[in-house]
Amino acid sequence: MPPFFPRATALPRMSSSAIQAKLAELGITLPPLAVPAAAYLPFVRTGNLVFISGHIAKKDGKPWVGQLGKDTDTATGQAAARAIAIDLLGTLQAATGDLGKVVRIVKVMSLVNSTPDFTEQHLVTNGCSELLAAVLGDAGKHARSAFGVAQIPMGACVEIELIAEVRD
Predict the structure, then answer these.
(1) Is 161 exposed, middle or buried (0-12, 13-18, 19+ CB in 10 A)?
(2) What pairing do the DSSP bridges indicate for beta strands 143-149 and 102-113?
(3) For residue 130, is it within any domain?
(4) Would 66 disulfide with which of 36, 44, 60, 157, CB 3.0-4.6 Å?
(5) Number of separate domains in the chain
(6) CA-wise closest residue to 69 among 149, 164, 159, 8
(7) Residue 5: inside a domain, yes or no?
(8) Angle at CA 59, nearest 5°, toward 55 and 65?
(9) What is residue 111's three-state secondary structure?
(10) CATH, residue 156
(11) Tens digit of pLDDT per residue, the chain (168 long)?
(12) Which helix (H) or strand (E) holds 114?
């Protein structure tokens, strides 16, 4: 009898140059590592896992403020989540020194500042998930959770954290 959950197979490795070419094709320049806004580290590496702290959506260098279902629509939320993905990739590059060392994005957790009746958190989070897959290929495909929350620090519309597996 086969196991209930099949074993993961090795993913094809994307080279650093292929990742950089994809970023250039998408018109993306990764930001430098941001200074934390409170008492935490931007990332922690343990073994082959990198845990990246939550990043809030920013627009023009300031918190991208809004609440989904009230003053922000799903498409705008997706754009905010995509912007966070770019910041997360910048932090991941700082953590590894080379995005070519990413084996896979393991998990993404998204918090969406939303009204009680807003139910499209999963669609908002696609803005992040789709960009990670576009840049990293199969290694960017991940497990995910998306939650609606009453508020996010500084009134940001979205906050996302991730866990990545990396090689030495």
Answers:
(1) middle
(2) parallel
(3) yes
(4) 157
(5) 1
(6) 149
(7) no
(8) 75
(9) strand
(10) 3.30.1330.40
(11) 445 444 556 777 789 999 999 999 999 999 999 989 899 999 999 999 999 999 999 999 999 999 999 999 999 999 999 999 999 999 999 999 999 999 999 999 999 999 999 999 999 999 999 999 999 999 999 999 999 999 999 999 999 999 999 998
(12) none
- Residue 7 in any domain: the answer is no
In terms of residue numbers, what domain contains 56? 16-31+41-166
In this structure, the number of other CB atoms found within 10 A of the CB of residue 127 comes to: 24
Distance CA 40, CA 35 (A): 10
**Token pair listed for 135:** 């840049």
Q: How many other CB atoms are there within 10 angstroms of residue 44's CB atom?
A: 12
Residues in the chain, overall count: 168
Cβ density class 57-81: b for 16+ within 10 Å, e for less? bbeeeebbbbbbbeebebebbbbbb
Closest CA to 77 of 162, 159, 158, 153: 158
- CB-based contacts of 145, cutoff 8 Å, min separation 6: 107, 108, 109, 110
| Residue 1 within a domain | no
CA distances from 48 to 103, 104, 106 (A): 9, 11, 11
